[in-house]
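note to self — DONT lose this again. spent like an hour looking for the file last time. sequence + predicted structure for the chain T wanted, 443 res
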Amino acid sequence: MKLQKILSLLFVLTVISFPVIAQKTVSTINRDNQTSAIAGTILAKDSNKTETFNFSDIHMCFDQYPNVNIPQKPLYKPPVLPPRLNQNGELYYPNTTEQALSNVPTLCWNPGDILTVGFYRNEGTDIVINKVKKYAKEWETVANIKFLFVDDVNNALIKCGFVKGHGSWSWIGRTAIGNILKERTMNFGWFDDNTPDVDVRRTVLHEFGHVLGFIHEHLSPLANRIPWIKPKVYAYFAGPPNNWTREQVDQYIFYKYSNSYVNSTSYDKTSIMHYFFPSSLTSDGSSFSQNDNLSTMDKIYAAYIYPFPPKITGSSGTLHTGDDCDAIDFKLEFFPGLDSNFIEFIFQPGVDPWNEKVTWWKQIGIPMKGGIEAPIQLRPDGRSELVRLPVNNIDFTRQISFSKAKILGLHTLLPFKWNALSAMKGGCRLTLTWKQDRCQKIF
């Protein structure tokens, strides 16, 4: 599978934080190239041209580095795909290369992992907590990962709080395993019952993206073509509510992770993990919107890093026993509603090319443990025969046999054997329709 992506995945330990905005502040920025940054304002040396910016509602992320140790990532063994049936009934084994995960960074979880999430309920209301649960679950639709919400935050791997004034942030991926001091690993610092749903959803998707191991997209090594006007950027973030130093701006905005530390294949400005920046901070007027949804590449890459188990699909075709122009249609189906402890077998007569129903005696033999077979015969009245056999009693190492009435009605075991049982599992149904048993019409 050739990716066209997007997000970067980090090997270093990172915490992402959003400072809370307490008040509205308006700063002035000059358009002149000869500028110097002072506390949120760029002062022109030879120009009176100015531009104002509103710093309210700027919820920016910045990186910190917790001093934690995490164990080596467990070896992930992708599920083995069962064989499938070609149209002629022969087995084939699907290619599983698209499920390879050799490039997954060490801070990502393994596909199918269950991450426990708990909340400091004395800090957040039920309304807010339920919204966080709801929007976090959206990642489960595109990534094979599960968030299990537990009542006791002390028993949770992801410890989520709602401390006002501490910003919104999350530890990155598996760094939570090294949380031996039982600190909170996630915080939403500006949520209350009146926070608009669009803001809650955007922030929750972003923070739980960090939980999955995704870093800020603008820090990707492939995002180095953003034409920043650095003096304006320094001024923009130097004022309230961020009050960042030049060193912090360098680290949080201009720094790019090395290709040796992250896994990224393309730059995606529409990613949920991307910062919002006004167009005035770039020399070509490039703008970076407030992304409210998972982008197409977010979904593709999440599914690649956390692939779902391959779906077992049904198959159909026609068998030829090699005797008397025999033709037997088969249809293998998998139904979630069927009892997974059984396999259903349906054996029925069909209508031959001369529009006549097959009526002579026929039988298939399903191999069972102990060297015996479970015989399934065509009913004398022409109706279908349905048999449910326990999976634990079927011998999947042997082949299905076929018998038919031949000259003088003698019941004869045919040399033809069908190696198909290894393509089946509990909860499936095999329908065999014997639709032809002769080579020409008998007058």
